[in-house]
């Protein structure tokens, strides 16, 4: 994963240039995000909840990140206030457990404005997103993984713009604050694989994840239980069981809102 982590090419002149992230492992990135000193650089525009661009420094390493403080979350009628940052972090736990590398490294910790999620910032071209790359063969496997991932986490808001492509042409998935609801909430722009058989390798990954979560005392279960309600973890397991039993990609449900708005 280390070779695909990218940093902004032009940090503010007053700051020392960040270390080359290609020399860092995923575990090292998580360590820096979780233990480093957080310094705000400014608000991120167009965010539905308060989000800050920050630098996280630990020793000689400086990483850019997106900080979403709990206190900046706007109330929603169907998601408990103050849980969105936990859901952001839980999505990374699932991505890492699957070894699919879809979600940038994310931690839950106290920052400059209290508890919040801090996620590695992916340097990207904002004009490139799902709708512009969906036919690109380089992303075929990743998009199939993402279609399954969004069903697993019950993503209520997979917009096209929530798919980023970094400088190494790797696709990342961001913005998972409204996931893991106990009721079916899937709204996504990625439906082109609907009804197709799940590939053997991906099905094996789903089985492995199911067994890891279901295993009493397992690390993944411990992490999820610290971030989500018990009923939400149980619903996650049920969704995994549905995919494993059906062995096919999810399809849009009749009489439901299956697409997010706006789609980008």
Give structural notes.
The chain has helices at 26-35, 84-98, 130-133, 140-153, 200-214, 219-227, 230-246; strands at residues 37-43, 52-58, 61-69, 106-111, 114-120, 163-165, 171-173. The chain has seven helices and seven strands. The protein has two domains: 2-120, no CATH class; 130-246, no CATH class. Strand 4 (106-111) and strand 5 (114-120) form a beta hairpin. It is globular. The chain is α+β, with helices and mostly antiparallel strands.
Throw out a few tags for this protein:
single chain; 264 residues; alpha+beta; 2 domains; 5-stranded antiparallel β-sheet; two-stranded antiparallel ribbon; 7 helices; 7 strands; 16% strand; globular
SSE blueprint and pairings:
Elements: H1 26-35, E1 37-43, E2 52-58, E3 61-69, H2 84-98, E4 106-111, E5 114-120, H3 130-133, H4 140-153, E6 163-165, E7 171-173, H5 200-214, H6 219-227, H7 230-246
Antiparallel strand pairs: 1-2, 2-3, 3-5, 4-5, 6-7
Brief summary:
The protein is built from seven helices and seven strands. The protein has 264 residues and is of the alpha+beta class. It folds into two domains: 119 residues, no CATH class; 117 residues, no CATH class.
């Amino acid at each position: 994963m280390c070779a695909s982590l990218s940093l902004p090419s032009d940090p503010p002149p007053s700051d020392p240039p960040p270390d080359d992230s290609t020399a860092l492992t995923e575990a090292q990135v998580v360590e820096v995000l979780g233990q480093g000193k957080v310094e705000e650089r400014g608000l991120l525009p167009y965010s539905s909840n308060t989000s800050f661009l920050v630098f996280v420094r630990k020793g000689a390493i400086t990483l850019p990140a997106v900080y979403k403080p709990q206190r900046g979350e706007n109330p929603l009628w169907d998601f408990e206030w103050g849980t969105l940052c936990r859901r952001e972090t839980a999505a990374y736990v699932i991505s890492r457990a699957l070894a699919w590398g879809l979600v940038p490294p994310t931690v839950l910790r106290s920052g400059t404005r209290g508890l919040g999620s801090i996620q590695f910032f992916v340097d990207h071209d904002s004009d490139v997103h799902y709708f512009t790359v969906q036919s690109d063969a380089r992303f075929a496997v990743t998009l199939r993984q993402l279609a399954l991932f969004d069903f697993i986490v019950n993503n209520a808001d997979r917009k096209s713009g929530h798919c980023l492509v970094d400088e190494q042409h790797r696709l990342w998935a961001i913005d998972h604050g409204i996931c893991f609801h106990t009721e079916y909430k899937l709204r996504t722009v990625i439906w082109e694989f609907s009804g197709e058989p799940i590939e053997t390798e991906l099905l094996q990954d789903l089985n492995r994840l199911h067994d890891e979560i279901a295993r009493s005392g397992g690390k993944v279960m411990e992490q999820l239980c610290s971030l989500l309600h018990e009923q939400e973890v149980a619903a996650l397991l049920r969704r995994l069981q549905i995919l494993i039993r059906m062995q096919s990609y999810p399809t849009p449900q009749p009489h439901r809102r299956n697409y997010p708005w706006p789609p980008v």
